[in-house]
Write a structure and sequence with these properties.
Blueprint: H1 2-14, E1 22-25, E2 34-39, E3 45-50, H2 54-69, E4 77-80, E5 86-90, H3 97-104, H4 108-126, H5 145-160, H6 169-183, E6 190-192, E7 201-204, E8 207-210, E9 217-219, H7 222-229, H8 238-255, H9 259-288, H10 292-311, H11 318-328, E10 343-351, E11 368-371, H12 392-399, H13 402-425, E12 429-436, H14 442-458, E13 462-468, H15 469-473
Parallel strand pairs: 10-12, 10-13, 11-12
Antiparallel strand pairs: 1-2, 2-3, 3-5, 4-5, 6-9, 7-8
Helix pairs in contact: 4-8, 5-6, 5-9, 7-9, 9-10, 10-11, 13-14
Protein backbone atom coordinates (compact mmCIF):
# COMPACT_ATOMS: atom_id res chain seq x y z
CA UNK A 1 0.00 0.00 0.00
CA UNK A 2 2.82 2.40 0.91
CA UNK A 3 4.59 1.76 -2.40
CA UNK A 4 1.41 2.50 -4.34
CA UNK A 5 0.96 5.84 -2.55
CA UNK A 6 4.61 6.79 -3.12
CA UNK A 7 4.39 6.02 -6.83
CA UNK A 8 1.14 7.93 -7.23
CA UNK A 9 2.52 10.91 -5.29
CA UNK A 10 5.46 11.07 -7.72
CA UNK A 11 3.00 10.88 -10.61
CA UNK A 12 1.10 13.82 -9.13
CA UNK A 13 4.32 15.80 -8.88
CA UNK A 14 5.03 15.10 -12.56
CA UNK A 15 1.93 17.12 -13.50
CA UNK A 16 2.75 19.94 -11.10
CA UNK A 17 0.58 18.96 -8.16
CA UNK A 18 1.82 19.77 -4.64
CA UNK A 19 2.15 17.19 -1.91
CA UNK A 20 -1.36 16.18 -0.77
CA UNK A 21 -2.48 16.94 2.77
CA UNK A 22 -4.24 13.58 3.04
CA UNK A 23 -4.47 10.25 1.26
CA UNK A 24 -7.25 7.72 1.85
CA UNK A 25 -7.83 4.34 0.20
CA UNK A 26 -11.29 3.95 -1.28
CA UNK A 27 -13.42 0.88 -0.52
CA UNK A 28 -12.67 -2.14 -2.69
CA UNK A 29 -15.38 -3.31 -5.05
CA UNK A 30 -15.60 -6.36 -7.27
CA UNK A 31 -12.21 -6.05 -8.97
CA UNK A 32 -8.59 -6.08 -7.86
CA UNK A 33 -8.11 -2.41 -8.73
CA UNK A 34 -7.03 -0.15 -5.87
CA UNK A 35 -8.10 3.50 -5.63
CA UNK A 36 -6.92 6.37 -3.42
CA UNK A 37 -8.36 9.84 -2.88
CA UNK A 38 -5.74 12.61 -2.65
CA UNK A 39 -6.81 15.86 -1.00
CA UNK A 40 -4.78 19.05 -1.45
CA UNK A 41 -4.44 22.19 0.62
CA UNK A 42 -6.80 24.27 -1.50
CA UNK A 43 -9.47 21.59 -1.33
CA UNK A 44 -8.81 20.03 -4.73
CA UNK A 45 -9.30 16.27 -4.88
CA UNK A 46 -7.93 13.73 -7.32
CA UNK A 47 -8.10 9.95 -7.62
CA UNK A 48 -5.08 7.68 -7.93
CA UNK A 49 -5.49 4.14 -9.20
CA UNK A 50 -3.38 1.01 -9.41
CA UNK A 51 -4.23 -2.03 -11.53
CA UNK A 52 -1.69 -4.70 -12.55
CA UNK A 53 -3.83 -5.78 -15.53
CA UNK A 54 -2.21 -3.67 -18.27
CA UNK A 55 -4.59 -4.69 -21.08
CA UNK A 56 -7.57 -3.56 -19.01
CA UNK A 57 -5.82 -0.27 -18.29
CA UNK A 58 -5.16 0.31 -22.00
CA UNK A 59 -8.86 -0.22 -22.70
CA UNK A 60 -9.80 2.25 -19.96
CA UNK A 61 -7.28 4.82 -21.19
CA UNK A 62 -8.37 4.52 -24.83
CA UNK A 63 -12.11 4.54 -24.13
CA UNK A 64 -11.79 7.53 -21.77
CA UNK A 65 -10.06 9.67 -24.39
CA UNK A 66 -12.68 8.73 -26.99
CA UNK A 67 -15.64 9.46 -24.71
CA UNK A 68 -14.27 12.81 -23.60
CA UNK A 69 -13.69 13.77 -27.23
CA UNK A 70 -17.41 13.11 -27.81
CA UNK A 71 -18.42 15.15 -24.77
CA UNK A 72 -19.58 12.15 -22.75
CA UNK A 73 -19.28 12.71 -18.98
CA UNK A 74 -16.49 10.43 -17.74
CA UNK A 75 -13.59 11.29 -15.38
CA UNK A 76 -10.56 12.48 -17.35
CA UNK A 77 -7.19 10.77 -16.98
CA UNK A 78 -4.63 13.41 -16.00
CA UNK A 79 -1.49 11.27 -15.81
CA UNK A 80 -0.26 7.72 -16.27
CA UNK A 81 3.07 6.10 -15.52
CA UNK A 82 5.12 4.50 -18.35
CA UNK A 83 4.15 0.95 -17.38
CA UNK A 84 0.43 1.89 -17.46
CA UNK A 85 -0.21 0.46 -13.99
CA UNK A 86 -0.78 3.78 -12.19
CA UNK A 87 -3.16 6.59 -13.17
CA UNK A 88 -4.29 9.96 -11.85
CA UNK A 89 -7.94 10.76 -12.60
CA UNK A 90 -10.45 13.48 -11.96
CA UNK A 91 -12.47 12.93 -8.79
CA UNK A 92 -16.15 12.40 -9.62
CA UNK A 93 -17.13 12.48 -5.94
CA UNK A 94 -18.06 9.71 -3.54
CA UNK A 95 -21.84 9.53 -3.93
CA UNK A 96 -23.28 7.08 -6.43
CA UNK A 97 -26.79 7.07 -7.81
CA UNK A 98 -27.35 3.85 -5.85
CA UNK A 99 -26.25 5.63 -2.65
CA UNK A 100 -28.81 8.37 -3.27
CA UNK A 101 -31.54 5.87 -4.00
CA UNK A 102 -30.86 3.89 -0.82
CA UNK A 103 -30.54 7.04 1.31
CA UNK A 104 -33.46 9.08 -0.02
CA UNK A 105 -35.72 6.54 -1.69
CA UNK A 106 -37.24 7.00 -5.13
CA UNK A 107 -37.83 10.75 -4.78
CA UNK A 108 -38.57 13.04 -7.70
CA UNK A 109 -34.93 14.12 -7.63
CA UNK A 110 -33.66 10.54 -7.84
CA UNK A 111 -36.17 9.73 -10.58
CA UNK A 112 -34.90 12.76 -12.49
CA UNK A 113 -31.37 11.40 -12.36
CA UNK A 114 -32.53 8.04 -13.67
CA UNK A 115 -34.29 9.67 -16.62
CA UNK A 116 -31.10 11.58 -17.43
CA UNK A 117 -29.10 8.36 -17.16
CA UNK A 118 -31.17 6.41 -19.72
CA UNK A 119 -30.84 9.33 -22.13
CA UNK A 120 -27.06 9.36 -21.66
CA UNK A 121 -26.99 5.59 -22.17
CA UNK A 122 -28.37 5.95 -25.70
CA UNK A 123 -25.50 8.32 -26.49
CA UNK A 124 -22.92 5.86 -25.16
CA UNK A 125 -24.45 3.03 -27.16
CA UNK A 126 -25.24 4.76 -30.47
CA UNK A 127 -22.62 7.54 -30.69
CA UNK A 128 -19.59 6.21 -28.80
CA UNK A 129 -19.27 3.13 -31.00
CA UNK A 130 -18.34 5.33 -33.98
CA UNK A 131 -14.59 5.50 -34.30
CA UNK A 132 -13.97 3.55 -31.10
CA UNK A 133 -10.80 1.44 -31.20
CA UNK A 134 -12.18 -1.99 -30.32
CA UNK A 135 -8.81 -3.65 -30.86
CA UNK A 136 -7.93 -2.70 -27.25
CA UNK A 137 -11.20 -3.99 -25.74
CA UNK A 138 -10.62 -6.29 -22.75
CA UNK A 139 -11.22 -9.20 -22.35
CA UNK A 140 -13.22 -9.40 -25.59
CA UNK A 141 -13.94 -7.02 -28.44
CA UNK A 142 -17.47 -8.13 -29.18
CA UNK A 143 -20.52 -9.86 -27.79
CA UNK A 144 -20.24 -13.32 -29.32
CA UNK A 145 -21.07 -16.94 -28.55
CA UNK A 146 -17.86 -17.43 -26.58
CA UNK A 147 -18.52 -14.47 -24.24
CA UNK A 148 -22.13 -15.61 -23.77
CA UNK A 149 -21.01 -19.10 -22.78
CA UNK A 150 -18.48 -17.62 -20.35
CA UNK A 151 -21.30 -15.87 -18.50
CA UNK A 152 -23.64 -18.85 -18.60
CA UNK A 153 -20.96 -21.13 -17.16
CA UNK A 154 -20.13 -18.46 -14.58
CA UNK A 155 -23.74 -18.82 -13.43
CA UNK A 156 -23.57 -22.63 -13.48
CA UNK A 157 -20.32 -23.06 -11.56
CA UNK A 158 -20.42 -20.16 -9.10
CA UNK A 159 -24.10 -20.07 -8.21
CA UNK A 160 -25.98 -23.18 -9.28
CA UNK A 161 -23.40 -25.74 -8.20
CA UNK A 162 -22.39 -23.73 -5.14
CA UNK A 163 -25.98 -23.92 -3.89
CA UNK A 164 -26.27 -27.68 -4.53
CA UNK A 165 -29.02 -27.20 -7.11
CA UNK A 166 -29.76 -30.41 -9.01
CA UNK A 167 -29.73 -30.45 -12.81
CA UNK A 168 -28.81 -32.57 -15.82
CA UNK A 169 -25.52 -31.30 -17.26
CA UNK A 170 -26.32 -32.30 -20.86
CA UNK A 171 -29.83 -30.85 -20.82
CA UNK A 172 -28.57 -27.62 -19.30
CA UNK A 173 -25.94 -27.36 -22.04
CA UNK A 174 -28.72 -27.73 -24.62
CA UNK A 175 -30.56 -24.83 -23.01
CA UNK A 176 -27.38 -22.74 -22.92
CA UNK A 177 -26.74 -23.31 -26.63
CA UNK A 178 -30.35 -22.39 -27.46
CA UNK A 179 -30.17 -19.24 -25.33
CA UNK A 180 -26.92 -18.18 -27.00
CA UNK A 181 -28.42 -18.61 -30.46
CA UNK A 182 -31.49 -16.54 -29.49
CA UNK A 183 -29.35 -13.75 -28.02
CA UNK A 184 -27.15 -13.61 -31.10
CA UNK A 185 -30.18 -12.97 -33.33
CA UNK A 186 -30.28 -9.35 -32.15
CA UNK A 187 -28.33 -6.43 -33.66
CA UNK A 188 -24.94 -6.12 -31.98
CA UNK A 189 -23.40 -3.04 -33.60
CA UNK A 190 -23.51 -0.74 -30.57
CA UNK A 191 -21.26 0.07 -27.62
CA UNK A 192 -22.01 -2.37 -24.81
CA UNK A 193 -20.96 -0.71 -21.55
CA UNK A 194 -21.17 -4.12 -19.85
CA UNK A 195 -21.74 -2.96 -16.25
CA UNK A 196 -24.14 -0.05 -16.60
CA UNK A 197 -25.67 0.19 -13.13
CA UNK A 198 -26.36 2.84 -10.51
CA UNK A 199 -23.27 1.85 -8.52
CA UNK A 200 -21.15 3.05 -11.47
CA UNK A 201 -22.87 6.40 -11.86
CA UNK A 202 -21.48 9.21 -9.71
CA UNK A 203 -23.57 12.20 -8.64
CA UNK A 204 -21.58 15.31 -7.71
CA UNK A 205 -23.34 18.67 -7.39
CA UNK A 206 -26.08 17.73 -9.85
CA UNK A 207 -23.47 16.45 -12.33
CA UNK A 208 -23.55 12.83 -13.47
CA UNK A 209 -20.33 11.01 -14.26
CA UNK A 210 -19.90 7.45 -15.53
CA UNK A 211 -17.19 5.04 -14.41
CA UNK A 212 -16.14 1.38 -14.75
CA UNK A 213 -16.64 1.04 -18.51
CA UNK A 214 -13.26 -0.57 -19.27
CA UNK A 215 -14.92 -3.94 -19.95
CA UNK A 216 -16.97 -2.44 -22.77
CA UNK A 217 -17.17 -3.99 -26.25
CA UNK A 218 -19.32 -4.01 -29.38
CA UNK A 219 -22.65 -5.58 -28.56
CA UNK A 220 -26.46 -5.30 -28.29
CA UNK A 221 -28.54 -2.52 -26.76
CA UNK A 222 -30.63 -4.59 -24.36
CA UNK A 223 -27.92 -5.74 -21.95
CA UNK A 224 -27.03 -2.30 -20.56
CA UNK A 225 -30.63 -1.15 -20.20
CA UNK A 226 -31.43 -4.30 -18.23
CA UNK A 227 -28.30 -3.89 -16.10
CA UNK A 228 -29.68 -0.54 -14.92
CA UNK A 229 -33.37 -1.44 -14.62
CA UNK A 230 -32.85 -4.79 -12.91
CA UNK A 231 -29.94 -3.92 -10.64
CA UNK A 232 -30.60 -6.16 -7.66
CA UNK A 233 -30.03 -3.85 -4.72
CA UNK A 234 -31.70 -0.87 -6.42
CA UNK A 235 -34.92 -2.95 -6.39
CA UNK A 236 -36.77 -0.49 -8.65
CA UNK A 237 -40.58 -0.79 -8.70
CA UNK A 238 -41.93 -2.41 -11.86
CA UNK A 239 -43.96 0.68 -12.78
CA UNK A 240 -40.84 2.86 -12.68
CA UNK A 241 -38.91 0.30 -14.73
CA UNK A 242 -41.57 0.61 -17.41
CA UNK A 243 -41.35 4.41 -17.33
CA UNK A 244 -37.57 4.29 -17.72
CA UNK A 245 -37.77 1.73 -20.50
CA UNK A 246 -40.27 3.87 -22.44
CA UNK A 247 -38.09 6.96 -21.97
CA UNK A 248 -35.09 5.03 -23.21
CA UNK A 249 -36.97 3.71 -26.26
CA UNK A 250 -38.24 7.19 -27.16
CA UNK A 251 -34.70 8.55 -27.05
CA UNK A 252 -33.44 5.57 -29.04
CA UNK A 253 -36.11 6.08 -31.72
CA UNK A 254 -35.16 9.75 -32.05
CA UNK A 255 -31.58 8.76 -32.86
CA UNK A 256 -32.06 5.37 -34.53
CA UNK A 257 -35.60 5.11 -35.99
CA UNK A 258 -36.99 1.59 -36.27
CA UNK A 259 -35.07 0.06 -33.37
CA UNK A 260 -37.96 -0.30 -30.88
CA UNK A 261 -39.48 -3.50 -32.32
CA UNK A 262 -36.09 -5.13 -32.82
CA UNK A 263 -35.17 -4.22 -29.25
CA UNK A 264 -38.30 -5.68 -27.69
CA UNK A 265 -38.18 -8.94 -29.65
CA UNK A 266 -35.27 -10.27 -27.57
CA UNK A 267 -35.63 -8.05 -24.49
CA UNK A 268 -37.05 -10.78 -22.17
CA UNK A 269 -34.30 -13.24 -23.13
CA UNK A 270 -31.66 -10.65 -22.26
CA UNK A 271 -33.28 -10.09 -18.85
CA UNK A 272 -32.79 -13.76 -17.98
CA UNK A 273 -29.26 -13.72 -19.36
CA UNK A 274 -28.28 -10.67 -17.31
CA UNK A 275 -29.87 -12.03 -14.12
CA UNK A 276 -27.95 -15.28 -14.57
CA UNK A 277 -24.69 -13.39 -15.09
CA UNK A 278 -25.40 -11.33 -11.98
CA UNK A 279 -26.08 -14.40 -9.83
CA UNK A 280 -22.83 -15.93 -11.07
CA UNK A 281 -20.96 -12.76 -10.11
CA UNK A 282 -22.64 -12.62 -6.69
CA UNK A 283 -21.78 -16.26 -6.15
CA UNK A 284 -18.12 -15.70 -6.97
CA UNK A 285 -17.62 -12.36 -5.24
CA UNK A 286 -19.89 -13.14 -2.30
CA UNK A 287 -19.76 -16.86 -1.59
CA UNK A 288 -16.14 -17.41 -2.63
CA UNK A 289 -14.50 -14.04 -1.92
CA UNK A 290 -16.79 -13.20 1.03
CA UNK A 291 -17.51 -9.63 -0.10
CA UNK A 292 -20.45 -8.37 1.88
CA UNK A 293 -22.32 -6.16 -0.58
CA UNK A 294 -22.47 -9.01 -3.11
CA UNK A 295 -23.93 -11.33 -0.47
CA UNK A 296 -26.46 -8.69 0.47
CA UNK A 297 -27.59 -8.45 -3.15
CA UNK A 298 -28.32 -12.17 -3.65
CA UNK A 299 -31.86 -12.15 -2.18
CA UNK A 300 -32.79 -9.13 -4.32
CA UNK A 301 -31.52 -10.90 -7.44
CA UNK A 302 -33.54 -14.00 -6.56
CA UNK A 303 -36.69 -11.90 -6.10
CA UNK A 304 -35.97 -10.24 -9.46
CA UNK A 305 -35.77 -13.65 -11.11
CA UNK A 306 -39.04 -14.81 -9.55
CA UNK A 307 -40.89 -11.68 -10.71
CA UNK A 308 -39.45 -11.88 -14.23
CA UNK A 309 -40.53 -15.51 -14.54
CA UNK A 310 -44.09 -14.48 -13.75
CA UNK A 311 -44.02 -11.71 -16.36
CA UNK A 312 -42.03 -13.49 -19.07
CA UNK A 313 -42.43 -17.29 -18.96
CA UNK A 314 -39.58 -19.22 -20.61
CA UNK A 315 -41.03 -22.07 -22.71
CA UNK A 316 -38.50 -24.23 -24.49
CA UNK A 317 -35.91 -24.15 -21.70
CA UNK A 318 -36.93 -27.07 -19.46
CA UNK A 319 -33.67 -27.51 -17.54
CA UNK A 320 -33.21 -23.81 -16.92
CA UNK A 321 -36.77 -23.57 -15.66
CA UNK A 322 -36.07 -26.46 -13.27
CA UNK A 323 -33.03 -24.59 -11.97
CA UNK A 324 -34.93 -21.30 -11.67
CA UNK A 325 -37.64 -23.04 -9.66
CA UNK A 326 -35.05 -24.34 -7.19
CA UNK A 327 -33.36 -20.94 -6.93
CA UNK A 328 -36.70 -19.39 -6.04
CA UNK A 329 -37.00 -21.80 -3.10
CA UNK A 330 -33.52 -21.22 -1.64
CA UNK A 331 -33.76 -20.65 2.10
CA UNK A 332 -30.15 -19.68 2.76
CA UNK A 333 -30.70 -16.12 1.56
CA UNK A 334 -33.04 -13.67 3.20
CA UNK A 335 -33.36 -9.93 3.37
CA UNK A 336 -31.28 -8.59 6.23
CA UNK A 337 -32.07 -5.23 7.73
CA UNK A 338 -30.19 -4.38 10.90
CA UNK A 339 -31.59 -1.70 13.22
CA UNK A 340 -29.30 1.32 13.34
CA UNK A 341 -30.16 2.27 16.91
CA UNK A 342 -29.07 -0.95 18.62
CA UNK A 343 -26.60 -3.79 18.43
CA UNK A 344 -27.76 -6.90 16.58
CA UNK A 345 -26.05 -10.15 17.59
CA UNK A 346 -26.39 -12.72 14.81
CA UNK A 347 -26.03 -16.23 16.25
CA UNK A 348 -25.87 -19.44 14.27
CA UNK A 349 -25.23 -23.14 14.62
CA UNK A 350 -23.65 -25.00 11.71
CA UNK A 351 -21.94 -28.19 10.58
CA UNK A 352 -18.24 -28.08 9.76
CA UNK A 353 -18.66 -31.07 7.44
CA UNK A 354 -21.84 -30.05 5.62
CA UNK A 355 -22.14 -26.29 5.38
CA UNK A 356 -18.97 -24.77 6.82
CA UNK A 357 -18.63 -21.53 8.77
CA UNK A 358 -21.54 -19.18 7.94
CA UNK A 359 -20.76 -16.07 5.91
CA UNK A 360 -21.21 -12.62 7.35
CA UNK A 361 -23.46 -10.58 5.06
CA UNK A 362 -22.74 -7.33 6.92
CA UNK A 363 -19.67 -5.21 6.20
CA UNK A 364 -17.82 -6.56 9.27
CA UNK A 365 -16.31 -9.64 7.64
CA UNK A 366 -17.13 -12.16 10.37
CA UNK A 367 -17.02 -12.64 14.13
CA UNK A 368 -16.50 -15.23 16.86
CA UNK A 369 -16.51 -18.90 15.80
CA UNK A 370 -16.58 -21.54 18.55
CA UNK A 371 -15.71 -25.17 17.82
CA UNK A 372 -17.93 -27.56 19.79
CA UNK A 373 -16.39 -30.76 18.46
CA UNK A 374 -14.29 -31.37 21.61
CA UNK A 375 -17.47 -31.56 23.71
CA UNK A 376 -19.41 -34.76 24.54
CA UNK A 377 -21.34 -35.75 21.41
CA UNK A 378 -24.99 -36.87 21.72
CA UNK A 379 -24.81 -37.92 18.08
CA UNK A 380 -22.73 -40.93 19.11
CA UNK A 381 -25.42 -42.18 21.48
CA UNK A 382 -28.02 -44.31 19.70
CA UNK A 383 -31.01 -43.16 21.73
CA UNK A 384 -30.08 -39.45 21.31
CA UNK A 385 -28.89 -39.42 17.71
CA UNK A 386 -32.23 -38.56 16.10
CA UNK A 387 -33.00 -35.74 18.53
CA UNK A 388 -31.61 -32.19 18.23
CA UNK A 389 -30.20 -29.61 20.60
CA UNK A 390 -33.69 -28.10 20.80
CA UNK A 391 -35.24 -31.20 22.33
CA UNK A 392 -35.31 -32.31 26.01
CA UNK A 393 -33.30 -35.58 25.73
CA UNK A 394 -30.27 -33.80 24.24
CA UNK A 395 -30.71 -30.70 26.42
CA UNK A 396 -30.76 -32.78 29.63
CA UNK A 397 -27.76 -34.80 28.49
CA UNK A 398 -25.60 -31.74 27.73
CA UNK A 399 -26.73 -29.78 30.80
CA UNK A 400 -25.26 -32.52 33.00
CA UNK A 401 -21.82 -32.40 31.35
CA UNK A 402 -19.25 -30.29 33.18
CA UNK A 403 -17.30 -29.86 29.95
CA UNK A 404 -20.28 -28.08 28.43
CA UNK A 405 -20.77 -25.85 31.47
CA UNK A 406 -17.10 -24.82 31.44
CA UNK A 407 -17.17 -24.24 27.69
CA UNK A 408 -20.20 -21.95 27.87
CA UNK A 409 -18.74 -20.00 30.80
CA UNK A 410 -15.70 -19.20 28.63
CA UNK A 411 -17.94 -18.33 25.67
CA UNK A 412 -20.06 -15.97 27.76
CA UNK A 413 -16.98 -14.15 29.04
CA UNK A 414 -15.50 -13.70 25.56
CA UNK A 415 -18.77 -12.55 24.00
CA UNK A 416 -19.46 -10.23 26.95
CA UNK A 417 -16.24 -8.39 26.20
CA UNK A 418 -17.26 -7.81 22.59
CA UNK A 419 -20.85 -6.87 23.39
CA UNK A 420 -19.86 -4.35 26.07
CA UNK A 421 -17.28 -2.78 23.75
CA UNK A 422 -19.64 -2.69 20.75
CA UNK A 423 -22.41 -1.11 22.79
CA UNK A 424 -20.04 1.56 24.07
CA UNK A 425 -18.81 2.35 20.56
CA UNK A 426 -22.25 2.34 18.96
CA UNK A 427 -21.67 -0.62 16.63
CA UNK A 428 -24.74 -2.35 15.25
CA UNK A 429 -23.54 -5.84 14.29
CA UNK A 430 -21.78 -8.77 15.98
CA UNK A 431 -21.67 -12.32 14.62
CA UNK A 432 -21.19 -15.44 16.76
CA UNK A 433 -21.21 -18.97 15.32
CA UNK A 434 -21.07 -22.43 16.89
CA UNK A 435 -19.97 -25.42 14.84
CA UNK A 436 -19.98 -29.15 15.45
CA UNK A 437 -19.76 -32.24 13.26
CA UNK A 438 -23.40 -32.51 12.20
CA UNK A 439 -24.70 -29.11 13.25
CA UNK A 440 -27.67 -30.56 15.14
CA UNK A 441 -26.72 -31.20 18.78
CA UNK A 442 -23.85 -29.41 20.54
CA UNK A 443 -23.75 -26.32 18.32
CA UNK A 444 -27.53 -25.89 18.54
CA UNK A 445 -27.53 -26.28 22.32
CA UNK A 446 -24.66 -23.77 22.69
CA UNK A 447 -26.24 -21.15 20.43
CA UNK A 448 -29.57 -21.44 22.27
CA UNK A 449 -27.86 -20.96 25.62
CA UNK A 450 -25.92 -17.91 24.44
CA UNK A 451 -29.13 -16.40 23.08
CA UNK A 452 -30.86 -16.89 26.42
CA UNK A 453 -27.86 -15.49 28.33
CA UNK A 454 -27.62 -12.33 26.17
CA UNK A 455 -31.34 -11.62 26.35
CA UNK A 456 -31.38 -11.99 30.14
CA UNK A 457 -28.27 -9.87 30.69
CA UNK A 458 -28.73 -7.09 28.12
CA UNK A 459 -32.49 -7.01 27.59
CA UNK A 460 -33.64 -4.55 24.92
CA UNK A 461 -30.20 -2.95 24.61
CA UNK A 462 -29.55 -5.42 21.82
CA UNK A 463 -31.38 -7.67 19.37
CA UNK A 464 -30.49 -11.36 19.07
CA UNK A 465 -31.13 -13.24 15.84
CA UNK A 466 -30.54 -16.99 15.76
CA UNK A 467 -30.23 -19.30 12.75
CA UNK A 468 -29.74 -23.05 12.97
CA UNK A 469 -28.26 -23.69 9.54
CA UNK A 470 -28.55 -27.50 9.36
CA UNK A 471 -31.90 -27.73 11.11
CA UNK A 472 -33.26 -25.10 8.74
CA UNK A 473 -31.97 -26.99 5.68
CA UNK A 474 -33.60 -30.19 6.86
CA UNK A 475 -36.88 -28.48 7.69
CA UNK A 476 -36.65 -29.46 11.35
CA UNK A 477 -37.62 -26.02 12.67
CA UNK A 478 -41.17 -26.19 11.40
Amino acid sequence: MKNHIETLTKLLASIGKPKPVSVAPLPLSGSDRIYFRFVFKEGERLIGSYNPEIKENIAHDTFTAHFINLGLPVPAILARNPSLEYFILEDAGNITLLDLLLQEGLTDKVKGYYFRVVSDLVRFQAEAIRGLDLSVAFPAGSFDKRSIMWDLNYFKYYFVKTNDITFDENLLEDDFVLMASRLLQTDSDFFMYRDFQARNIMVNRETLSYIDFQGGRKGPLQYDVISLLYQAKANLPETFREELLNTYLEKLESILPGQRDKFMSTYPMFIFFRLMQVLGAYGFRGLFQHKAHFLQSIPYAIENLKRVLQKYPMPGFPELNRIFEQIGKLKDYHFVSLPHDKLTVSLSSFSYKKSGIPLDITENGGGHVFDCRALPNPGRIAELKEFTGLQPPVIEYLKDKQEMTDFLDHVFAIVDQSVDNYLERGFNSLMVSFGCTGGKHRSVFSAENLKRYLQEKYGNRLEVRLTHVELQKEGRLL
